[in-house]
Amino acid sequence: MPQSTKTAIMVIGGAEDKIHGKEILHNFFGRSGAAEARIAIIPSASREPAIIGERYLTIFGEMGAKGIEVLDIRDREQCNDALMQSYVENCTGVFMTGGDQLRLCGLLADTPLMRTVQQRAQKGEITLAGTSAGAAVMGHYMIAGGGSGESPNRSLVDMTTGLGIIPEVIVDQHFHNRNRMARLMSAIAAYPDRLGIGIDEDTCTLFEGDGTLQVIGKGTVTILDPAELSYTNQEKVGATDPLSIGNLRLHILSHSDRYDLRKRVPSFAAYRMAQE
Amino acid sequence: MPQSTKTAIMVIGGAEDKIHGKEILHNFFGRSGAAEARIAIIPSASREPAIIGERYLTIFGEMGAKGIEVLDIRDREQCNDALMQSYVENCTGVFMTGGDQLRLCGLLADTPLMRTVQQRAQKGEITLAGTSAGAAVMGHYMIAGGGSGESPNRSLVDMTTGLGIIPEVIVDQHFHNRNRMARLMSAIAAYPDRLGIGIDEDTCTLFEGDGTLQVIGKGTVTILDPAELSYTNQEKVGATDPLSIGNLRLHILSHSDRYDLRKRVPSFAAYRMAQE
Fold it and tell me: What family is this (chains A, B) (predicted)?
């Protein structure tokens, strides 16, 4: 299959392959312009930004990117830096690493630099990728943390505000790997006007700007669609009481499956191929 | 609320309260006839049947049951025992403990004793309860074991045949506590003519024989309804490949919520009360 060169917003569930096939990172590289790519790496979610920045710099360098800069932002004031601003105005791809999503939002939310990245990504001028914490920040509402191994309940998930790059979704990452279904359900019960997207490790949800998403990588993407929600007691019960939730629609998507965000309908790769 | 004295099939997610309020065990005691109850305890799932049998014997004895027998079946031949057979023909309640569901099925499936229990439970003559392994055996298809922390895939769940007491369901227990959503989804993808029922610890699904189920206890019951399943690649992919599943309907039920098994529609306690 020829790889698309269209720009996209790439939401990666963490732990993407960095050694062998590197499917997801190659896809990012291609969609950022391949040999013409000028890539900005934002390692600010991490407590070891220099190390993680260098790791991705090496990977994209070996792929042959024309330019790569690590924007090692450790202070909000750096987001006014003219050189960095100039770089993100002219780059073709931005990659946000893993770490702590609260740290990433704290450093970048509502800064001139992030506004430029967001606007250019939403216009389709650049490919923006985020993995793990870099994925968590994509929605307007963000899962800051939470637990697993309990009945769905309000206290199972800590919600805050994300970067709002894809406002209509709530993203959860390392999804089945860290057993996060109950916390995403608890989040969606609180914000049933959003779409829940749980992304497994080494798996990526590609938003191509045409109102659909597509899955690549080794695992699955779980869609929790509350459009037909009939009932929840979310606002009525105590923080640790078990929730009631009626009528969620659930899809499990794997490689090359798509989902229409407007119609809220999945389209499965094997089914599409059989039709063609 | 007055406690129902109707017989029921009680499917308990394991780890039910045995010390404090004992809500679920009290409910079983009441539905088995309270002071008139003649209870059979089947501890055969356990590798320590004497200890676990004694534990429930003490609990139901303290509640005031008229008669209690531990049917400590360790060999299929015991299931032809005339005294045991006579006891289950005249008892008012049967309680199957936790342990290993394969062991329980191996000892009891297709024996005269179990046929009597099943027929009397299905006719509403007795209350039959099973907790943990005793819950797992309720369906025609049974989850014998499996894993968690992976994308849904065929190898995540080991399926075999259960006791078929409620043939139309596939039960999973310790559900959110042991993060079993992915394995129940994998089971339902394989048997989409069944209804998936995931029961949390200290939580019970009551089947009252009127085509509805009701939830009691501390946690939630998850209903995975594949009636509108649009697609799965379950039969086409390798055992460890991630699954695609389209259009599962998902409900989370908590205390006093009900679900109509024929119409496949939930009815929430707080909503019902607001209507009344």
Answer: Belongs to the peptidase S51 family.
* Residue B272: per-residue pLDDT: 78
What residues have CB less than 8 Å from B11, skipping those under 6 apart? B129, B130, B135, B138, B166, B171, B173, B197, B199, B204, B205, B206, B207
CB B82 within 8 A of CB B90: no
- Residue in the structure block whose two tokens are 């849904």: B152
A182 to B200: CB separation less than 8 angstroms, yes or no: no
Rounded distance, CA A116 to CA A125, Å? 11
- Which chain A residues are within 8 Å of B241, Cβ to Cβ? 254
- Whether the Cβ atoms of residue B94 and residue B117 lie closer than 8 Å to each other: yes
Q: How far is A257 from chain B (nearest CA, A)?
A: 8
What is the ipTM, given to two decimal places?
0.96
CA distance A67 to A65: 6
A16 in B contact zone (CB under 8 Å): no
Give yes or no: B174 in active site.
yes
* Secondary structure of residue B249 in the 3-state scheme: strand
Say yes or no for a CB contact (<8 Å) between B152 and A220: yes
Q: Which of A19, A38, A33, A149 is nearest to A86 (CA)?
A: A38
Give the closest residue to B163 by CA, choosing from B171, B175, B155.
B171
A238 touches chain B (CB under 8 A): no
Cβ atoms within 10 Å of A14's Cβ, excluding its own: 22
Mutate to test the interface with B, among A174, A234, A252, A257 (most CBs of B within 10 A): A252
H runs (alpha helix) in chain B: 23-31, 49-63, 82-90, 101-108, 112-122, 133-136, 181-190, 269-275
pLDDT of residue B3: 61
Rounded distance, CA B260 to CA B262, Å?
6
Closest CA to B100 of B43, B24, B28: B43
In chain A the domains, ranked by start, together with CATH numbers, are: 9-268 (3.40.50.880)
The answer to whether B54 and B97 have CB atoms below 8 angstroms apart is: no
Q: Which contiguous run of DSSP H or E holds residue A229?
A: none
Q: How far is CA A32 from CA A127, A130, A144, A193, A210, in A?
A: 6, 14, 29, 32, 18
Does residue A130 contact residue A74 with C-beta atoms inside 8 Å?
no
Mean pLDDT, contiguous 10-residue spans, chain B (276 residues): 79 97 97 98 98 98 98 95 96 98 98 97 98 98 97 98 98 98 98 98 96 97 98 95 98 98 95 76
- Distance from C-alpha of B172 to C-alpha of A116, rounded to nearest angstrom: 48
Whether A203 and B251 lie within 8 Å, measured CB to CB = no
Indicate the pLDDT class of residue A1, thresholds 50, 70 and 90. very low
- Smallest CA–CA separation between A14 and chain B, in Å? 14
Closest CA to A268 of B4, B192, B210, B230: B230
Q: Cα(B102)–Cα(B35) distance, rounded to whole angstroms?
A: 33
Distance CA B171, CA B244 (A): 21
Residue of B nearest to A199 (CA): B151
